[in-house]
């Protein structure tokens, strides 16, 4: 791995950790379920530096921020780990298969969808074990995920545009 | 993806969104909204049968699963039966058997005063008497 | 995949390792990013920390040989529960004092000592009897709590219709004027031996009054006490609307037809007496539990009578009294007293006092014609 790659990953991870940890302070209707605002960084990493970088950023983000927050290996960690990994994987696969089909918003939507799906699945397996309860919250989460997905996608798109412009015309 | 591609792509975007983006967004919105409706249909309000004895909650059962249960009242066992999303009192030790004669209900309540057994279908007061808080008479 | 890009921006990085940082600072990117984050935070904090909303808490219990439901509007479930339990406690106390069927009640004590001696009673018992006598006076004896000796001849569960001779024998024992109250010693005396006082027609309304008082003392601003057909409402619901009470259709054929009318109430009580509550039919004739004190037989002329007034004891006693008086006399007395009432006559026609015009919402069944006097 080249050093600039490491640098990028480190920087993006730092941002992601900050956002992730901050998001964790916000209350949510269902415990351990998070919106995944940090997905903006994953998205940026994916579209600019590829799948590998994105996955690295996600893993670092999930692990380190859970250590910071103090939920490492706890239920919250399992939820965000599975959510993060599956959403990154889904976005990465779609992006490498059809690089031009989806823009940042579409990718972010896919990410949010898989983020929610994974979390619901884990919640069902580990905590709730009542398919009815899971089904009832599904549409709500889907809708919330769609909204945050769009917002994340737009912000991510801006970020990507900004970074690529800066990279082409570096400030002197 | 090359940077030039990103830029080229941006030109055909409407505010940063491709056609696929919009289709995906529309599909997700439709799915989640229809999901709300589906959930409402599949799990309507009033899915719980609450059985109280002397004002205390004795059992809480789902209306969706068939069951027969013996509820101990002050004069003996009242048999409450749940079947096909309906509830009835099958047997009762009370003298007048009004509760048994009431037959199957899918909303509201059956109350057996002598045996102090009350069977409510939760949240079901809704349907048509939604705005009515109490009934006199 | 991103070779070209990498080479290009590696130069930037060497010049400025914190290459992303400026993006968050300068230009619109930073502004949008931070404002979006702020939006997220504020939205979530708002949604999570919105003040605790007022809700209706409801509890039912069997007391006074009937189902009692108390609804209370409160911001806290604990407070609501505590208030409701206190109110049930009050009703339970009244039930112990006034139960006709319990040997240990003060009422039974009075009845046992009929023609023997005056019985000292608690202020509550004294008050109900005082109020019942007031209603008897106003209805010219149509409502009479001393009907007990005749009531006990009938059994509406076992379909027992007494002999005419039996009823005639007992009728002299029915007269509210033979209840002697002594306020000083708080004692009650039934003049004639064999007299039986049955407070069934006043105790529930009175209990609703007392329960509401208890709820108010517990700091409850709004609630509804429903003791069988005797309902007392106060305050407004969380949606700031008055409480809505349905009036039962006396000849409902199915569940959908159960309610014939609805009325909105606040700080008012409503009671209904109907010939459909306890009855049996022999040879096409309906024998129900509302007995005329003058004849000892079920009162004819009405199917149901609902009375609306400030106090529950008034509505409870007058719904029975007006039922016995019949439609015409009943409406006249109500108008005189300034009370509101809804009478369904024997043909199923609805009569209301003039004040109720437009306030009563008639539900369903278009065949039933509404007639206002």
Describe this structure in words.
The complex is a heterotrimer of chains A (172), B (137) and C (373). With 172 residues, chain A is an all-alpha fold. Chain A has a single domain, classed as Arp2/3 complex 21 kDa subunit ARPC3, CATH 1.10.1760.20. Chain A is built from 6 helices and no strands. Chain A starts with a helix and ends with a helix. The mean pLDDT of chain A is 81. Chain B is of the alpha+beta class and 137 residues long. Chain B folds into 2 domains: 3-42; 48-129, mini-chromosome maintenance (MCM) complex, domain 2 (Sandwich), CATH 2.60.320.10. Chain B is built from 4 helices and 8 strands; from the N terminus they run H-H-E-E-E-E-E-H-E-E-H-E. Chain B has a 4-stranded antiparallel β-sheet with strand order 2-1-7-6, with no helix packed on it. A 3-stranded antiparallel β-sheet of chain B has the order 3-4-5. In chain B, a hairpin with a 2-residue loop joins strand 1 (48-53) and strand 2. The model of chain B is unreliable at 6-14 and 124-129 (pLDDT under 50). Chain C is 37% helix and 24% strand. Chain C contains 11 helices and 17 strands. In chain C, the strands form 4 sheets. In chain C, strands 1-2-6-7-10-13-14-15-17 form a 9-stranded mixed β-sheet. In chain C, strands 3-5-4 form a 3-stranded antiparallel β-sheet, covered by helices on one side. Chain C has a 3-stranded antiparallel β-sheet with strand order 8-9-16, with no helix packed on it. The longest helix of chain C is centred in the first third of the chain and has 23 residues, at 27-49. Classes of the chains: A mainly alpha (172), B alpha+beta (137), C alpha+beta (373). Chains in contact: A-B, A-C, B-C. Chain B binds chain C through residues 1-3, 52, 54-55, 95-96, 105, 108, 111, 113, 116, 118, 120, 128-129, 131-137, and chain C through 1-2, 4-5, 8, 59-62, 65-67, 69, 71, 88, 157, 224, 226, 229-231, 233, 237, 243-248, 250, 255-256, 258-259, 262, 270-272, 274, 276-277, 304, 306.
